[in-house]
Amino acid sequence: MKKTLEFKAHDGEIEDIALGPDNKVVTVGRDFQCCVWQQDQLVTGLRWHENLPGIPDKAYRYQACRDSGTFLGLGTVTGSVAIHIAFSLQRLYYVKEAHGIVVTDVAFVPESQPGRELLGDHEAALLSVAVDSRCKLHLLPTRRSLPVWLLLLLCAGLIVATILLLQLTFPGFL
How far apart are CA 27 and CA 41, in angstroms? Predict the structure, then answer.
C-alpha cells in the first residue's frame, strides 16, 4: 500500500472514519467535530456547540459515524444517536441518550431484499451499538413531499395569478 494523501483533519485523535460516495470521507474527532472531506478539502462539518447549543461541548462529542450516501449516521459518547442528510448535514433524526453510555458503532441497514423488509415504509434504518451491551434499531420515517405534477400545477397557477394581478394593477399591460 502507498500513501496517496496526508492532511490534518482534526486537533487530536480521530475517533471514526467512513467512506462515502464520490470519494468523500467523513471523520469524527476528539475535537468535537464531524467533518466531510473531498480529498484534503473540507466540504462541510458539524461542531458540537453549533449543532446542539445549550449542551456543554466539553462533556460530549461525536464518537462513531457511517455514511450511506444519502444519510450520515452519528453516535456520541453520551449515547445519543442522530441521522443527518449527507450533503448538507441537516439533522433529520435525533434521540438524546438512546443508550446509557458511549455509542461505539453505527451502521445503516443495507438496501438488500432482507434490509428492505426490515425498513418497511421507512426511508432508512440505523443500527447503533453501545458500551451498555445493547444494539438498537433507529427508523427514519419517510419524509413527505409534494408530487411533481402538483408542484408544477402550483407554479403554473402562481404565474397566471401574477399576470392577472399585473393586468389589474397596470391596465394595458398585455
Answer: 13
